[in-house]
Amino acid sequence: MASVDYYFPPLRWSRLKLLDSGCYADVYLAGFKNSKHDRFYQLFALKTAKLFQRSSSLEKELRIYNDLKHCPEIITCFREQLTVKGGDLLYNLLLEYAPCGTLSKLIHKYSRNNVNNINDDVSHYSHLETNVQIYTRMILRGLSHIHSKGYVHCDLKPDNILVFPSDQNDTGHQLKIADFGLAKEPGEVIPRDRYKLRRFRGTPIYMSPESVQGRIETTLDIWSLGCVVVEMCTGRRPWQLGVDYEKPKDLMLMLAFSEKSPKVPEYMSKDGRDFLSKCLARDPRNRWSAQMLLDHPYVSESVEQ
Asked: Is 88 part of the annotated catalytic residue set?
């Protein structure tokens, strides 16, 4: 049975099931109630945390979502709301619900169906890479908007990119960037040691060489995008546990002090390899901006037509 929240009017909704549980918040599938027929007629994602104890990250996200409104490649936050449940005062964000899940789930589906057949049938990979080009352009449009407003996402990865159904392109999907809990806001000064070793925030396998040394700039998101593109093309994470590193600390030391970058697939198109070279340059000064990458032939508007 759904767990009903009691809250301030006028909205009436209920939690339906837990979708994810993290350090800062829990995410539920929830629905508005149609009291006349006692049915749920609109689904949404509910991100919730105890007020004052864990809610500061959600309050930060609300500020960012409000500033990034009206970008089709960033999820919509409908509103905030306080509720009372089990004696606890909760802070909630009501967000768009992605019925197709995350990009991680989509990558797993494609890798199972396509990537394993690359050596047997090149057409399988050709179709996959066409989709990757379209998805990459979507992510870039979102990143370009984020960066134009002065933000750095800081945790761009497939788990934080949501998938929606769409009839606007051949993939049948629309990607939207989500989860701004670790984002750097305009003018924010982040202590350099927050991104070092034991105190590290974020997901190390998608972090850039300079970020693990405490330099947090938009170039971090571009490196992360390159890692996501590699993962979309190969079905594997950009760095492999047991192959490239044994412990997270080893990975961070490798990023900071070696000359290694994620391996670019040999079977990728020439334009694709060149695109990744602009994302995965170890020197952040040599990485292209999101706006520059939108003009790269690999993600030109023609790939969506």
From this structure: no
Give the burial class of 247: count Cβ atoms within 10 A of its Cβ; 0-12 exposed, 13-18 middle, 19 or more buried: exposed
Helix axes 122-148, 218-234, angle to 10 degrees: 160
Per residue in 10-67, pLDDT (tens digit) is: 567 889 999 998 878 999 999 987 666 666 668 999 999 988 777 888 999 999 999 9
**Between 2.60.40.1600, 3.30.200.20, 2.40.40.20, 3.40.30.10, what CATH number should domain 13-95 receive?**
3.30.200.20
Which residues sit opposite 112 in a β-bridge?
Answer: none
* Domains of the chain, residue spans: 13-95, 101-295
For 251, the token pair is 């990975």
- pLDDT tens profile 275-302: 999 999 999 999 999 999 999 999 986 5
Contact 27, 97 (CB under 8 A): no
- Of the residues 155, 170, 179, 193, only one is catalytic, namely 155
Which architecture characterizes domain 101-295 according to CATH? Orthogonal Bundle (1.10)
